[in-house]
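Sample entry was shown:

___
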Amino acid sequence: MRIVFVILLLTLSKLLLAQNGAVIGKVTDDLEKQPLEYATVALRSTADSSLITGTITNTEGEFILEKIPFGSYYLVVDFIGFRSTVINDVNLSADQPSFNASAIELKTGSELTELEVTGEKSLIENHIDKKIFNASQSEVSKGGNGIDLMRTVPLITVDENDNISLRGDANVTIFIDGRPSAIPIADLLKQIPASSIDKVELITNPSAKYDPEGTSGIINIILKKEKMVGFNGTFSTSFGYSKFHKTNNSLALNYRNKKWNVSSTMGLSNRKIWFGGDLDRDVLLGDTLWDRLRQTDYGERSNTGLSGSLGIDYFLNDKNTLYASYSINHGQNDGERLVNYTNIDENGATLSYSERLGIIDVPSNNQTLNFGWQKTFKNPGHTLDLDVNLSSYGSLADERLTQDYFINDDVVATTYQNTLSDNRFDTYLAKLDYVYPINDSTKLEAGFHFTHRKGQIDFYSESGIAEDSISPDTALINDFSYTQDVYAPYITLSKQFGKFSAKAGIRAEQTNTLSHLITTDDKFTNDYFMLFPSVYLSYKFNETTEMQLSYGKRINRPEQQQLNPFTNYSDPLVLQTGNPFLQPEVIHVNELNFTKYWKKFNINASGYYRLINNLIRRNLSYSGVQSTVSYTNLGKSSLYGGDLILTVTPVKGVRIMSTTNVWNTATNDPEFSNGETINLMGLTSSLTVSGRFGKGWSAQLWSSITPKQTVLQGSIIPNYGAGFAVGKSILNNKGRLTLSFIDVFKTRRFGFEATPLPHYTFTSNRRWESRSAYVSFSYSFGKVVQGKKKRATKDNDSSDDISIPDMQ
């Protein structure tokens, strides 16, 4: 076997192209010098720690990595029960196209006494088409849930309602493991422990292979998956304290042999928070003050989540894998909110006072079935993937409202209202993806994607002045459904010319939609066809300097509520109605990226420009003191901005990362600017300091700030926060104990000051239980048995790279 391996190496060396190299080696244990089969070997870039390629060792403990671009790298070798070993200075060039790592001896876990920092994965990795935030490197978020983690990701902001924005834009598509989810993403992330998230991909200008939905791009949240052979697993638990207690618990199990891989996860979370705020609103009738409202509120909300999943891979042979998985999430949300309404005159005297108590109960269920087939061909990177994902979500919001009206301190009247909102959302996705490497420098990708989405909101309301005399509110009852089918073939071609590389593609989408106001049996169809081209150009000046230029076309489809033609009278002063004839916004995105690496300092700078046509605008009309909000397509807007990521390693084991994003939107809106172009600026900035020390200790400080931001309807007050964490590896490095603090100074808040309108002005401030302390513990266990190479995951389903094992 050894002779065959050497002959293979010599043959391989002769076949190497001018720009490609190879790495070989053998992995053994350090005591008995026995070969270790199925050890994972990952080759990473010295510049930014990004994964270049990876493999597992054969029965003799040997491995070969080939077709590697010339450059500087390091090897990371892992095997369960043994110490992770790093091989530095893996340099490939035309003069030395191959590197022999010789015998790599792994030490058993019991001998570990100090955590190595050499070759540590970066918190942020930069790729040609995306930035990757390695959540496993973030100590601050451990203990919280997925929303807590998202608040620490560079370029991402989360508002007071847990809405997620990328580069300041909330029109972003969010995937879990490369797939859409029927469950609202904020609700799902509240049920996912932060410790279960492996990494977050930020794809700001996706290629034609991706779903073009979302103005600012795609956020792909990738969950952790066990990659070791045999039976193994990880248990995680955390306990949080603020005004109310919080807990997140998860268990992941995995077993793999030569033919099967079976995985299972279970999770249980419980979280309770308080929230509150105030609002001031003036309504004018001509020049006369008609109504001045002062509103304050306080509420408490609890969320309990129970989740489970079961996945099976069946390895037919070395070239074919069948897989299937099923997951279920059950959520229980309960809350109370007390709102105080005070109407006053111009002199501040109270005209009326009332209190409204709302008690809400919202059970929810989400089920997802995923199955598929993966085919690999003889040539490396030649693959065919069929993937089907069926996701269904339902929630039933039952709210009981009681409003008391006071004169002095006496209740003079009481009204009752009961509402029931039955929400159902289904998302079905089928994808066929084909990758064909024409040669070492040219790759063809083609495929077909079909997406079916259906949502239905059935809202019922009843009210009365006595609990025994309640009747239906016909002006509020409304049942609306929306169906969307998208048929999308695509093709891309990439080519490398020495230091220059290019990729071009086009995606065609036929979209068929049906809006159905079931209450009146009115139906509206809106079908359209669009082409989405994309172009990437990249030039690598040297091993440490690269520049990229890209263009893409995207789409922002109207939200379901914007299409619902039913007029909502829940606020008698501000009516709301949708427009079923709304067209999608069309966005042209241009982006320029520059990356430069030094020994202790890295810089990644991006500039971007977006032109948005067919802009969806809010239309406000007046009738006396009553206003009506609707939606229309009118005009266009443009946005230009830039982000800067600086990484400094002043001393061994310490890394400082600064991220800043600034943007300016130029728009004209008759409602707010009298048709003149106005410029709206925004900025976000964050700073992370991470340190890894001897004996398994680590620490991290994190802070972010969003200065006062001007938006079309007014301005948002500054918002900032900070957190820190300390962690320690224990139990022979199988366990990890972490103490973390989120929003240490209790500064997180949201405030809005509206631009005064002729008939309407208001300001609002919101606070919530943002400061928490967490104690977290995780423990990994397992036993090595013979297994088989795991199928390529669908994490990077829309990746521009050829599928390779995702080693850690």
